[in-house]
Design goal:
Layout (H helix, E strand, L loop, with lengths): L1 E2 L2 E3 L2 E3 L6 E6 L4 E7 L3 H20 L2 H17 L1 H12 L3 H25 L4 E4 L3 E9 L2 E5 L5 H14 L3 E5 L6 H12 L7 E3 L4 H10 L3 E7 L2 H11 L5 E5 L4 E5 L5 H13 L9 E7 L3 H14 L18 H16 L3 E4 L3 E2 L10 E2 L2 E4 L6 H4 L6 E7 L2 H9 L3 E2 L1 E5 L3 H10 L4 E4 L14 E2 L2 E2 L4 H7 L1 E9 L1
Parallel strand pairs: 1-5, 8-9, 8-11, 9-10, 11-12, 13-14, 13-21, 14-19, 18-19, 21-22
Antiparallel strand pairs: 2-3, 4-5, 6-7, 7-25, 12-24, 15-18, 16-17, 20-23
Helix pairs in contact: 2-4, 2-6, 3-4, 4-5, 9-10
The structure holds nicotinamide-adenine-dinucleotide.
The site of nicotinamide-adenine-dinucleotide has 31 residues, from helix 7 and helix 8.
């Protein structure tokens, strides 16, 4: 049995209350480990450690701080295989995906912010013959980072790396559903020479230690990625404390496919955008809008690819589709599939749980699922399902495509598939999403702003946006 510990003050420590949660492997449905069910007492230890470590970390020369972050990236790379395996077991994602995407990108996050550390600069505003203003961007102090289960180490490091780069001490909580790689990160940081207390990793539930991190008076900023409802609860809880808050929340992302697209490439990319990581990426496309003249041809090609995609044991090298992360999440997705049928949806493929043999006979597998015939206002087109379920609709003009895409409470990411340049410019200006990909999906440049509009979040991560979030701004005005 794999029993995890918290990482506090540079040591692995059991939770003070000695309470644990089960860690379940989604591919088998079996409990394979225990996770600390930490509470406020563990948090207090982490806050004391962070307070102690803060002055030295804040005043460490930037180059030295950058070297440590770079060494963490190298440490992740050295443990690529072990981390990819752990991610696959914890999350149910194909081990090949973890090896190619999750773990290398986690290393890239640390490398990127190792550089950002020494490249980040602030502004100066001169008032001719009167005064000069310069802006200081100083570390905030102790900050909290809370992340979800879908891209565990990738998103955990996406928050921690900039927070550390900006000179903060961090108290971080991974999802209780996928805690393993976060637990392994503690040792990697220690080996890389990160001073003790600078990063503290606590495990446990959202309503327990997660909520305690958000409301702790000595934690001055919260960076949260997760569901929209959770984000709203956190915002409500901490509003009276006026702490900095970054929210990366849910999505219901439209893909707009035009008749002039590169057909084969678009089918391939939209398929990937729909079903990668079992559809459990906040950026996955879930509402596919296809120009009327291309609708049948595109539908036939997409459905054929979905039919050919079979869930497999995620530990098998050839697996392209793994397990859904938990029984509760599988049930939620299956409920939406039933709802789609009640709402008048026509099932084109999938729609049912898949039973595998042997090791995976009790795992949480679901066939890639495609519906058509639902109205844009149907719940299945408006609520986030966060699984391998997509819907197809047709449109007959650019205006209609835009209006269908924007008819959503969410505003995270959109994709456009066309070769018409002026259409591209017009649509990208008018789409209400924080990210627009044109003829590509999930192509990431870590310098770019990342985040969503409307119920998809508040603020942006990435590049200087993250460095600004994790620093306090102070303007200094010097009169001549
Ligand atoms: P979740 O909101 O249930 O949990 C996310 C994290 O918050 C977990 O660590 C959880 O323990 C913690 N948490 C839960 N309640 C809390 C509370 N009251 N106070 C503090 N922490 C609390 O989300 P999830 O199910 O883990 O993740 C799936 C969701 O995340 C989806 O909605 C998905 O779209 C979203 N997501 C968004 C992005 C993005 O960048 N916008 C990226 C990945 C996932």
């Amino acid at each position: 049995m794999d029993i995890l510990k918290n990482y506090i003050d540079g040591c692995y420590q059991a939770p003070i209350n000695n309470r644990y949660l089960n860690n379940i492997e989604p591919a088998t449905g079996e409990v394979y480990g225990k996770i600390p069910d930490s509470d406020i007492d563990d948090l207090e230890l982490a806050v004391i450690a962070a307070e102690k470590a803060l002055p030295a970390w804040q005043s460490m020369p930037l180059e030295q701080r950058a070297d440590i972050l770079y060494a963490i990236a190298k440490g992740i790379e050295c443990q690529l295989e072990a981390l990819a395996l752990a991610e696959s077991i914890d999350n149910g994602k194909p081990v090949s995906l973890a090896r190619i995407v999750d773990i290398p990108r986690a290393a890239s996050n640390f490398k990127f912010f190792a550089h950002a550390c020494s490249q980040f600069s602030s502004e100066s505003h001169s008032m001719t013959n009167t005064a000069t203003n310069y802006t200081l961007r100083q570390s905030i102090g102790i900050v909290g980072c809370i992340s979800p289960w879908n891209l565990p180490l990738y998103l955990f490091s996406w928050k921690i790396a900039p927070a550390l780069a900006a000179g903060n001490c961090v108290i971080a909580k991974p999802s209780e559903i996928t805690p393993k790689t976060a637990a392994m990160l503690g040792q990697i940081c220690q080996d890389a020479g990160l001073p003790k207390g600078v990063l503290n990793i606590l495990h446990g539930t959202g309503s327990g230690v997660g909520s305690a991190i958000c409301t702790h008076k000595k934690i001055k900023a919260i960076s949260f990625t997760g569901g929209t409802k959770t984000g709203a609860a956190i915002a409500t809880q901490i509003a009276p404390q006026f702490k900095k808050l970054s929210l990366e929340l849910g999505g219901k992302n439209p893909a707009l496919v035009f008749a002039d697209c590169d057909f084969d490439d678009t089918v391939e990319q939209v398929f990937k955008a729909s079903f990668a990581n079992q559809g459990q990426i906040c950026l996955c496309a879930s509402r596919i809008y296809i120009e009327q003249s291309l609708y049948e041809k595109f539908k036939v090609a997409l459905v054929a690819k979905a039919k050919a995609l079979k869930p497999q044991d995620p530990l098998e090298k050839s697996a392209k589709m793994g397990a859904i992360v938990s029984k509760a999440h599988l049930d939620k997705i299956l409920n939406y599939i039933e709802l789609a049928k009640e709402e008048g949806g026509i099932l084109l493929t999938g729609g049912q749980q898949v039973t595998l043999s042997e090791r995976c006979r009790n795992g949480y597998f679901l066939a890639p699922t495609i519906f058509e015939g639902l109205t844009n206002q149907a719940k299945c087109n408006q609520e986030e399902i966060f699984g391998p379920v997509i819907t197809l609709q047709s449109f007959s003009s650019d205006e209609e495509a835009l209006s269908l895409a924007n008819e959503s409470e969410y505003g995270l990411a959109a994709t456009i598939w066309t070769n018409n340049l002026s259409r591209t410019h017009l649509l990208t200006e008018q789409l209400n999403t924080g990210i627009v990909w044109v003829n590509c999906w999930l192509l990431r440049d870590l310098r770019t702003p990342f985040g969503g509009m409307k119920h998809s979040g508040l603020g942006r991560e990435g590049g200087n946006e993250a460095m600004r979030f994790f620093t306090e701004t102070k303007n200094v005005c010097i009169k001549y």
